[in-house]
Amino acid sequence: MYKFILSLRYMYKRRISYLAFLAVALCVFIVVIVMTVLRGLVTDFKQKNHNFIGDCVIGTESLVGFPYYEEFINILENQNFVEAVSPVIKNYGLLSPRYSDLNQGVELLGIDPVKHSRTTAFKESLFYHRDNVSNAFVPPYEPNLPGCVPGIDLVLERDERGNYRQFERPFELGLSISVFPLTPKGALAKAGLGLVNTKTFYYSDNSHSGLARVDNSTVYLPFNQAQLLCGMQSPIERASWIHVKFTPDTKLEDSCVKVRSLWLEYKQTLSNKPGAELLAGVDVRSWREHRRSYIAAMEKEQVMMTLMFILVGLTTVFIVFVVFYMIISHKSKDIGVLRSIGVSKTNVIHLFSFFAFVMGLSASLVGAFFGWLFLSKINEIESWLFEHFDFQLWDRTIYAIEDIPNNVEIRTLTVIIMSAIIACLVGALLPSWKGSKLNPIDALQVSRL
User: Fold this and answer.
1) DSSP letters along 380-412, please?
2) Does an H or E element contain 320, and which?
3) What distance in Å separates the CA atoms of residue 268 and residue 249, rounded to the nearest whole number?
4) 380-390 pLDDT, tens per residue?
5) Span 370-397, mean pLDDT?
6) I want to staple 67 with a disulfide (CB 3.0 to 4.6 A). Which of 48, 75, 104, 236 is the partner?
């Protein structure tokens, strides 16, 4: 009982204790805010990449593609762990709006909108045809024209708050797309003046995936027309990727292993067929592996921020150490009295360790509470700052970020609070040990300060 009473007394009576309390509370406050926002951004970015890809992809980075994909799609669709499959044509081309001198390099994705929506979140990214994705490539102003779905940043501008001005229906816009068609061996399929395939598609909808790199450089085309445009229709029909979505009750890695095994078996049966050499570069990857080059950068930033806050934690340990050293130096008589009535050295260490625990717990709870309170209002605060001072944490005209993530996870909060308590215990350890070594006779001397 005396440990609890003395701990409270030292905390409230010694003003220097306020310094350690504020240091711990402020550290927890900052860490809760920054780690919550950063973790939310990374999690949201990963989820958007997952939605864009699906669960698994089979394919090659070669612009030539690979043949015999239809038979393997049939094999996948007969597996009980596969929910949906979508073939994709991937290539690069030059986009030129009609009656304009502007030219822009874009990534072309040829898809079947219905199959691709079952496999990915393509349907949710559309604005006009979300309820009828089968008509995604049908321009409402002229249904007989070939349609395309450009990334939203290719056709609409984003305002300072990150919002797009969508119209009642897509405006009439012809987009000329030019591509170099390739043979299965990677050579140009055409020669002379006509070596480029050019076709005009018409704006039928826009896709907002939430990924800036995708939304400002991707154009979706009907699968068959993209296949013809890129020269993948002859002499052997080819595709670039097969996107796969697994059933909800399956594990991602285990399912990818099964797909990889099926692919290796299927590839062996095609070893003597024309174009079988193109299958050598085909790989099976999970969505994480496929988008690793994009995700790794944000994960590295998260690790760097974590290391920075570990250094902040070490600073907190040093502050607690100094505060406890000064408290114990001025409380030598208390220690002498306790030792003279039979309190052991171990119990003296326990006393100040309990003091450190109470301080760490109370300070971290206060810091966590105000951190949570600030996060619950962070978007309103940013809106107020933007309205009055034109300040934004991220420029929404550049970054594809909507609201600032503010969902505090209990697990993250628990780890932060436990870390703060451990930091206080570590900071108090050496001063407590030194205090326990005091000789009761020396500590009770009248002349001793």
Assistant:
1) HHHHHHHHHH---SS-TTTS---SPP----HHH
2) helix 292-330
3) 30
4) 988 888 888 88
5) 85
6) 236
- Three-state DSSP state, 171: coil
- Residue partners of 108: CB distance under 8 A and separation at least 6: 89, 90, 91, 92, 93, 177, 179, 218, 219, 221, 226, 229, 230
Q: Which two tokens stand for residue 229?
A: 């445009």
State the alpha helices, DSSP H only, in 14-157.
16-53, 69-77, 113-119, 122-125, 152-155
Q: Residue with structure tokens 């628990």? A: 414
Q: Give residue 449's pLDDT.
A: 42
Q: Please tell me the chain's helix, strand, coil percentages from 3-state DSSP, rounded to the nearest 5.
A: 55, 15, 30
More confident residue, 171 or 349: 171
| Element at 111 (helix H, strand E) | strand 104-111
- Cis peptide upstream of residue 431 (ω within 30 degrees of 0): no
Radius of gyration of the chain (CA): 32
Taking CA atoms, 273 is separated from 227, 267, 280, 322, 421, in Å, by: 21, 10, 13, 77, 66
What integer pLDDT is reported at residue 305 of this predicted model?
A: 76
Which pLDDT band holds residue 124 (cuts at 50, 70, 90)? very high
Mean pLDDT of 82-95: 95
Task: Work out whether strand 218-222 and strand 66-67 pair parallel, antiparallel, or are unpaired.
Answer: unpaired
**What distance in Å separates the CA atoms of residue 211 and residue 394, rounded to the nearest whole number?**
15
Q: Tokens for 87?
A: 């073939």
Taking the model in full, what pTM does it have? 0.82
Residue 17 has a CB neighbour count (10 Å cut-off) of: 20
Number of neighbouring beta carbons within 10 Å of residue 114: 14
Report phi then psi at 148, rounded to 5: -145, 160
pLDDT band at 201 (very low <50, low <70, confident <90, very high): very high
